[in-house]
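Here is the promised in-class demo. Please do not try to memorize the tokens; focus on the logic of going from shape to residues.
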């Protein structure tokens, strides 16, 4: 039943109930507005309607509504109707409303509802557009009210001709705290109907919430003045969109979880100003995807499974300094996984761009990816994805790095570079992928795998092994990198593969090791311009089978300090180390170094290195040495009761009168095998037997001298094994990580 229209209604300290459901109280009418005022001067609880929904009713107010006391609870559904005038919703006393409908009727004239003071709606709020024409409605705040809506906030349309709904005025004067769901546009019209948001909505419900943008509807933020905020102690906000989604509308996750797909609508064209912004703080989780790349993403959370995905056929364009999607990380933020994808197809697809920003004021890690950092070009993609750093060169610490694709192209570090620290495995497997201006640093404590089967690592980049322990193992063959290679600490294992850098340096730091079999090399258009520097250890490790570690370069092999420790060259476990041959021209007193900085006045100081001075080279030839492990099947038998400290296979293709030789033997092997150092001799295998060619033994510098040697073959440092073998604690080789090696009495077949 319905009451006649009242010209106005003031309820003072009186409960108002209905005796049956279906009762409607009209305050004013469609043709004549009237106000409703609720007072409670008696300081007792006043109820409008009943907590029992069977005895509740609806109050239609064609005018302003004012509630003046916090001890007022309105169970009646309040239906505020703006016809013909705009209305004000005043709640200075903080009354609680269970359900409120703000309803707008008419043709093409806009209507306004102004909310005053702090208001709690302990139920649902509906902003309904009933216009038959193109009229719009605006919900605004006065005096920056905070409005708590415990239930749902719906903005439906009842006509395909309705205009727009506008939330806020852009001055942040209306701040919603929403505990339920937000639903936009229940009328499925042929053309999109738009909700315009200019102020903030905070999702703070205790359970799961949802944002539903129904098909053919959209949300548009304006002038960066509207923000969706997630601030939840529990549950997630699920985001769902229809045919049209959102644009120019920031999301900010303060606490809680945002799930679903955040789409930025026509912002993907990059045509004008991009206001989309995505931010989060330390207690935030985002478990959805950014499907058209907001223009700015500010990271400060522990994230989960973030995917930047643009399946649009138009792509998104790099505009001026906007640079597509910018990830601004002030330092220390975490992802579980981060995947960067653009899937734009067709002509004029444009480019995709993601830029990472670091903290210019610190050297801390800017962004952590605790799982996989992936750059992907999916099937059908024709555009280019650019993944850049910024002028302050951010540092990303990731677990796995996977750069892959099947179509289109990607470029990591095209404009600005970055440092990507990798604690587990790395894969580059796409021919149209490239890495520029970027340092790939492998810093995990355990074994890491390096798989590089396709793509280009450019000369502006560098590969760095800087591991506290463990090995970086190459898992692919025949790849040429333009980047420099540095082993600062930890071990690099070629794993039987070939890895070559082009016109860049390779260097091994004092704590660095290259160990294994395969080939590590430098190719260059200008010989000797780029160098292989060994300040650490290079170990040919056959792993129990005769095999070779080859260092292949036309540039100089050098070390940059006077070694007093165990830096140098080694062979073990049936391994053989081959360094590049050196051409020797004709003439007298030609000095050549092997495994050592070329310095005519210096003695060799790298372990197992050598210095040779040729007298009267009568024909040009190539000089080379292979360092052999003492347990290989192709070496000569040692003398009785003696063991090898070092074993060298020396070759020269030219002719000479004689040569003076200085070789630095492996003192760690002397100690580990219990060789009596004073008995060491320098032996030359000639005429089918070992011949002592020693002219001097320097046990302080671990040097053996030989003079007037007239031919080359195998040379060795051998000595007597003492009866008192050192205790296990002292038998450990000075070479970190090497196992103790016993001598083998074997014979090489096919001996020259």
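The designed amino acids, position by position:
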């Amino acid at each position: 039943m319905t009451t006649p229209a009242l010209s106005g209604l003031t309820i003072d300290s009186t409960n108002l109930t209905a005796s049956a459901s279906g009762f409607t109280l009209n305050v004013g009418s469609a043709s004549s507005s009237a106000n409703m005022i609720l007072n409670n001067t008696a300081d007792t609880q006043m109820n409008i309607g009943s907590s029992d929904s069977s005895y509740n009713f609806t109050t239609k107010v064609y005018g302003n509504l004012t509630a003046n006391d916090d001890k007022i609870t309105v169970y009646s559904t309040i239906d505020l109707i703006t016809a013909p005038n705009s209305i004000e919703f005043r709640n200075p006393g903080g009354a609680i409303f269970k359900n409120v409908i703000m309803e707008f009727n008419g043709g093409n004239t806009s209507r306004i509802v102004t909310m005053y003071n702090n208001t709690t709606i302990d139920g649902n709020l509906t902003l309904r557009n009933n216009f038959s024409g193109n009229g719009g409605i605006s919900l605004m705040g006065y005096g920056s009210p905070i409005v708590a809506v415990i239930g749902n906030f719906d903005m439906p349309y009842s006509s395909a001709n309705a205009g727009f709904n506008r939330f806020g005025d852009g001055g942040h004067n209306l701040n919603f705290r929403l505990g339920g769901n937000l639903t936009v546009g229940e009328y499925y019209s042929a053309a999109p109907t738009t909700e315009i948001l200019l102020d903030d909505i905070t999702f703070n419900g205790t359970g799961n919430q949802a944002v539903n943008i129904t098909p053919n509807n959209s949300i548009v933020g304006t002038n960066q003045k509207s923000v969706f905020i997630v601030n939840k102690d529990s549950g997630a906000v699920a985001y769902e969109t229809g045919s049209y989604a959102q644009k120019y509308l920031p999301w900010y996750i303060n606490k809680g979880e945002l799930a679903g797909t955040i789409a930025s609508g026509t912002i993907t064209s990059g045509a004008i100003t991009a206001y989309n912004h995505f931010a989060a703080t330390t207690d935030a989780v985002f478990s959805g995807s950014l499907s058209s790349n907001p223009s700015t993403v500010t990271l400060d959370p522990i994230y989960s499974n973030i995917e930047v995905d643009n399946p649009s056929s138009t792509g998104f364009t790099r505009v001026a300094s906007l640079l597509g999607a910018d990830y601004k990380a002030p330092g220390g933020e975490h992802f579980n996984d981060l995947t960067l994808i653009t899937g734009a197809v067709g002509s004029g697809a444009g480019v995709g761009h993601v830029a990472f920003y670091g903290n210019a004021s610190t050297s801390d890690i800017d962004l952590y990816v605790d799982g996989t950092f992936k750059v992907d070009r999916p099937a059908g993609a024709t555009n280019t994805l650019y993944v850049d750093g910024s002028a302050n060169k951010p540092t990303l610490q990731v677990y796995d790095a996977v750069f892959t694709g099947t179509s289109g192209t990607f470029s990591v570090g095209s404009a600005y570079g970055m440092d990507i620290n990798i604690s587990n495995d790395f894969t580059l497997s796409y021919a149209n992928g490239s890495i520029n201006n970027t340092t790939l640093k492998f810093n995990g404590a355990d074994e890491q795998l390096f798989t590089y089967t396709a793509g280009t690592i450019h000369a502006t980049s560098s590969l760095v092994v800087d591991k506290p322990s463990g090995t970086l193992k190459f898992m692919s063959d025949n790849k040429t990198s333009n980047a420099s290679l540095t082993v600062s600490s930890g071990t690099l294992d070629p794993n039987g593969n070939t890895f070559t850098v082009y016109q860049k340096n390779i260097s091994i730091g004092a704590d660095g090791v290259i160990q294994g079999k395969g080939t590590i090399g430098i190719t260059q258009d200008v010989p000797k311009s780029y160098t292989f520097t060994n300040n650490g250890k290079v170990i040919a490790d056959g792993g129990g089978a005769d095999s070779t570690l080859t260092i292949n370069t036309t540039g100089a092999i050098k070390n940059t300090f006077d070694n007093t420790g165990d830096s140098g060259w080694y062979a073990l476990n049936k391994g053989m180390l081959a360094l590049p041959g050196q051409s020797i021209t004709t003439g007298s007193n030609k000095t050549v170094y092997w495994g050592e900085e070329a310095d005519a006045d210096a003695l060799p100081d790298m372990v197992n290195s050598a210095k040779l001075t040729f007298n009267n080279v009568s024909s040009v030839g190539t000089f080379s040495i292979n360092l052999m492990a003492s347990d290989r099947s192709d070496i000569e038998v040692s003398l009785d009761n003696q063991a090898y400290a070092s074993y060298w296979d020396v070759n020269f293709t030219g002719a000479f009168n004689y040569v003076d030789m200085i070789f630095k033997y492996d003192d760690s092997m002397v100690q580990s095998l219990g060789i009596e150092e004073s008995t060491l001799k320098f032996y030359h295998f000639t005429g089918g037997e070992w011949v002592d060619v020693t002219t001097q033994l320097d046990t302080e510098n671990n040097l053996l001298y030989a003079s007037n040697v007239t031919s080359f073959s195998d040379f060795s440092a051998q000595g007597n094994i003492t009866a008192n073998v050192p205790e296990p604690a002292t038998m450990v080789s000075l070479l970190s990580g090497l196992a103790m090696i016993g001598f083998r009495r074997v014979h090489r077949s096919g001996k020259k």
